[in-house]
Structure formats: structure tokens, C-alpha cells
């Protein structure tokens, strides 16, 4: 596609509910990142994939957060038993190749509100 | 890991004036420094970037400078226009142990007053 696509754009979840957020990266992009952006803050790193391999998940806040990219393209970020502190915008970015420090392009994000 | 500090947090300028946003980073191994513009309700949009083997880069009204010794980099916007109003983020690419993380500053809200 023309850009990184994320769905849904908005999600309201009741506390304790599980949610799944989808990211469609730019076609052919090897690297995929997930970031969490709290209101008024900069994006915070969650996890990084190179193709289907999750090379870094050090930013995931707890074991309730899980991400996958089984075929090296579409990725899903899953949050189990959502808590109010999970409310944030979740951003996905993709990059052609990270080693050369190439540009990372972001999607519009999914705004998650836990009530 | 990397730590990026960004100043100021808010900046108001008159239309036509210049705006400067400054960032510092902590990890000398970081080698790629992008700047993003984020408008309300949208994802960050890359506006310019600089790699560690370059000291300055310019693209029309936007320029970025990098001082590797001091671990400083700055964004300069000249002849500001109302559509430049947005939140700007600097970032540094940290790589280690097979991973690559963009670490962001906390952002600068730029307001250009017509």
C-alpha cells in the first residue's frame, strides 16, 4: 500500500477485556516497530521485528502485551486483560532496512481508551 | 539504552520568524537522527534526518545540524508559516544486541502566530 495502515483507528475497551490492534506495513519493508504514545508525550518503544523474527521486546510493559508478525508482513499487537493505564495511542512504523538507518514511516495509530 | 532530551517543550514564533529546537542524546553509538512532525490526530511524519557522518543537512526551509562531539542536534525552520504549527519530535537510533530502537524526545509544540 501507499503507507502504513493501522486498524482500528479508535478502540474503547472495558477494563479486563482483551484487544487486538493490527498493522499493515508498507509492502516490502523488512523492519516493523510498535510504539506507545501517552497523551502529550513522545512515542515509547515497545517491540521490533525484522521480517517475522521479534528481535526486541524489551519495551513491552508487562506479559499482558504480546506482538506477532507470523509471515513477516502484517503485525498484531495484543493486550490481554486491559487496564486503564494501557490507554494510549499505539503507533506502528515500518522501515525498508534498519541497518543503514533508513527512514521509518509511521501509521496514524490506534487510540485505545480503557474504561 | 539511549536517552534523548528535547528543548523547549513549547515555542511560539511570529509568522516569518525562525524556530530552533534542540536535542541532546546520551549514547555515542547512535548514528541516525530523524525529526518528525506530528499534527493532531495523526501519526508522526518524517520531515528531515541526518546521519552521523554529516554535520548539516538542509531541505528548503528546514535544516538540521549535528555535533557528534557534544552529542547535540538541532532543527532549524526559517520563514515559518502557520502550517508549520505542530508538535515536533527528535529521535536517535540506538542499536545494540541485534535490536534497533528509535528513542524519541518528549516533543516541542510549535505555534506560528499569523
Question: How would the blueprint of this fold be written?
Answer:
The complex is a heterodimer of chains A (about 120) and B (about 110).
Chain A: E1 5-7, E2 10-13, E3 19-24, E4 31-37, E5 44-50, E6 53-56, E7 65-68, E8 75-79, E9 88-95, E10 104-106, E11 110-114
Chain B: E1 4-7, E2 10-14, E3 19-25, E4 32-38, E5 45-51, E6 56-59, E7 62-67, E8 72-77, E9 86-96, E10 99-104, E11 108-113
In N-to-C order, the SSE pattern of chain A is EEEEEEEEEEE
Helix content of chain B: under 10%
Largest sheet, strands/sense/barrel of chain B: 6 strands, mixed
Principal-axis shape of chain A: globular
The most extensive interface, with participating residues per chain, is: A-B, 27 and 27 residues
Would you give an account of this structure?
The complex is a heterodimer of chains A (115) and B (114). With 115 residues, chain A is mainly β. Chain A is 0% helix and 49% strand. In chain A, a hairpin with a 6-residue loop joins strand 4 and strand 5. Chain A is globular and about 35 Å long. The model of chain A has no long low-confidence stretch (mean pLDDT 93). Chain B is globular. The termini of chain B are far apart.
Summary?
With 115 residues, chain A is mainly β. Chain A contains no helices and eleven strands.
Notable traits:
A: 115 residues, mainly beta, four-stranded antiparallel β-sheet, 0% helix, B: 114 residues, six-stranded mixed β-sheet, five-stranded antiparallel β-sheet, globular
Amino acid at each position: 500500500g501507499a503507507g502504513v495502515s493501522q486498524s482500528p483507528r479508535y478502540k474503547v475497551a472495558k477494563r479486563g477485556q482483551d484487544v487486538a490492534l493490527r498493522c499493515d506495513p508498507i509492502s516490502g519493508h523488512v523492519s516493523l516497530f510498535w510504539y506507545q504514545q501517552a497523551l502529550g508525550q513522545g512515542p515509547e518503544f515497545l517491540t521490533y521485528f525484522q521480517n517475522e523474527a521479534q528481535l526486541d521486546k524489551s519495551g513491552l510493559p508487562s506479559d499482558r502485551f504480546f506482538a506477532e508478525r507470523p509471515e513477516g508482513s502484517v503485525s498484531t499487537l495484543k493486550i490481554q486483560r486491559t487496564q486503564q493505564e494501557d490507554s494510549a495511542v499505539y503507533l506502528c512504523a515500518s522501515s525498508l532496512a534498519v541497518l543503514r538507518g533508513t527512514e521509518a514511516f509511521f501509521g496514524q495509530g490506534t487510540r485505545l481508551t480503557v474504561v | 539504552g539511549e536517552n534523548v532530551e528535547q528543548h523547549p517543550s513549547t515555542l511560539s514564533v511570529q509568522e516569518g520568524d525562525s524556530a530552533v529546537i534542540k536535542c541532546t542524546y546520551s549514547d555515542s553509538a547512535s548514528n541516525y537522527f530523524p525529526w518528525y512532525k506530528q499534527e493532531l490526530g495523526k501519526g508522526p511524519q518524517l520531515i528531515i534526518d541526518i546521519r552521523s557522518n554529516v554535520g548539516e543537512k538542509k531541505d528548503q526551509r528546514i535544516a538540521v545540524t549535528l555535533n557528534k562531539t557534544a552529542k547535540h542536534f538541532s532543527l532549524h525552520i526559517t520563514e515559518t508559516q502557520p502550517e508549520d504549527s505542530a508538535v515536533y519530535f527528535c529521535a536517535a537510533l540506538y542499536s545494540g544486541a541485534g535490536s534497533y530502537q528509535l528513542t524519541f524526545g518528549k516533543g516541542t509544540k510549535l505555534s506560528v502566530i499569523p
